[in-house]
Amino acid sequence: MTTLLVDTPHGPARASLHCAHEPRAALLLGHGAGGGVEAPDLVAACRAANSVGVHVALIEQPYRVAGRRAPAPAGQLDTAWLSVVEDLGERWFDGLPLVFGGRSSGARVACRTSVEGQAVAVLCLAFPVHPPGKPEKSRMAELDGVEVATLVVQGENDPFGQPGHAHHREVVLLKGDHSLKASVADVGRYVGEWMDRVLRPLD
């Protein structure tokens, strides 16, 4: 693993690189609002992607690198993320298709930036469809705005809601809640199978 700091307009972000042999693509994964890149589902997704020939960068947003718990505003998260994408795309992943992803808040960032960042696919772990108990405050527009193949892995008992299927969006429901800790092995299995399948036409 290689760890490096990447300058962004909102302070340095941190990228932990997990490289695959003979890479066919690169997956950038962001963390949840209050958690880090060591979340079990992110680790499982990282290992699964490596196993099918995909480099992985686990991205820590500048507010986390600075030691703050409260997340930055959405616009700052998106700008910092795209700065990291551009930097790693040039320095480490040159010529490789990029897949965006993350858990919870990180999944939202991946969706919002997928068009501008030219992602070839998007992976959402525990996408927060709405705040708990507030279905009227839906965030489905962010998920619906993604124009490429998308996989959403969601806990059956997630208080943040359940997204629906769409023509380019697959939704997998697993036992457990928003943390997905109860089904970590299944997270890895579905992520690996999906990533291998969506990248095959690009090989």
Automatic annotation (TrEMBL):
Pfam hit, one: Abhydrolase_11
Sequence ranges assigned to domain KANL3/Tex30 alpha/beta hydrolase-like in this UniProt record: 24-183
SUPFAM superfamilies: alpha/beta-Hydrolases
InterPro entries: AB_hydrolase_fold, KANL3/Tex30_Abhydrolase, NSL3/Tex30
Top-level taxon: Bacteria
Protein's name in the database: KANL3/Tex30 alpha/beta hydrolase-like domain-containing protein
